[in-house]
Amino acid sequence: MSEFGGFCRCCLGVLLTLGFVALFLWLSYRPIKPRFYLTAFSLLPSPIVTGNLTALASFTLEIENKNKELGIDYDPISLSLSLNSTTTTTNSSAAATIPGFYQGHQKTADKSGYFTGDGRTPAARAAKVSNGSAVFRVVVESAIRYKTFARKGRRHKISVGGEVVVDKEGKKTGKKGIRLRSAAPPVAFRSCGANLLLGFIVSLVLW
């Protein structure tokens, strides 16, 4: 009987150890979505025509990876710009693309570029609105994969947006970056069941 009790205590100790390991791995490797900030935005005084594209506004997008142990692989990032104003009935948009890239854990990336359109985009005339300011809507879309130990997880779609107010000179008001947020409800990340503890640990490591 004493031998059986000792065996049970040994099994319990192993299970408790595995439980603490699983908790540590979950805290270390649970994915945190990247954060996007629009840190700079300015309408160009004179649109720049290159081929069939017309550059209408410049921007700088700051991307933060808050994960302590996970890198992030980004697919090409698409940005769209539309005029959100009651002073016009048109709502044409301009667009920009940031090439895909890899971002290490706890790293910040600054990506700059230009919104381009067909020249009829309200952005080209926004600085002339009657009150000397305009409100724009910027939307960022992409897909990401978390990476750890040279392994990549499945793709997660990202779609965030926010409004940026420009002054009569066409520049973003305020010095702080504008946090772009998701309008969709948060989706819980998938995990394995507690009854498969070993599988749970492996899935966290390979996420």
Structure report:
The protein is α+β, with helices and mostly antiparallel strands. The protein has a single domain, classed as Immunoglobulin-like. It is built from 2 helices and 11 strands. The strands form 2 sheets. Strands 3, 4, 5, 6, 8, 9 and 10 form a 7-stranded antiparallel β-sheet that branches. A 4-stranded antiparallel β-sheet has the order 7-2-1-11, with no helix packed on it. Helix 1 (2-29) runs parallel beside helix 2. It is elongated and about 80 Å long.
Question: Class by helix and strand content?
Answer: alpha+beta
Instruction: Estimate the global geometry from the Cα principal axes.
Output: elongated
First CA to last CA: what distance?
43 Å
What count of domains describes the coordinates?
A: 1
What would the CATH topology be?
Immunoglobulin-like
Q: Tally the beta strands.
A: 11
Overall average pLDDT: 76
Strand-and-helix sequence, N→C? HEEEEEEEEEEEH
Helix and strand arrangement:
Blueprint: H1 2-29, E1 35-50, E2 53-64, E3 71-74, E4 77-83, E5 93-98, E6 101-103, E7 108-117, E8 134-148, E9 151-152, E10 156-166, E11 178-180, H2 197-205
Antiparallel strand pairs: 1-2, 1-11, 2-7, 3-6, 3-8, 4-5, 4-8, 8-9, 8-10
Helix pairs in contact: 1-2
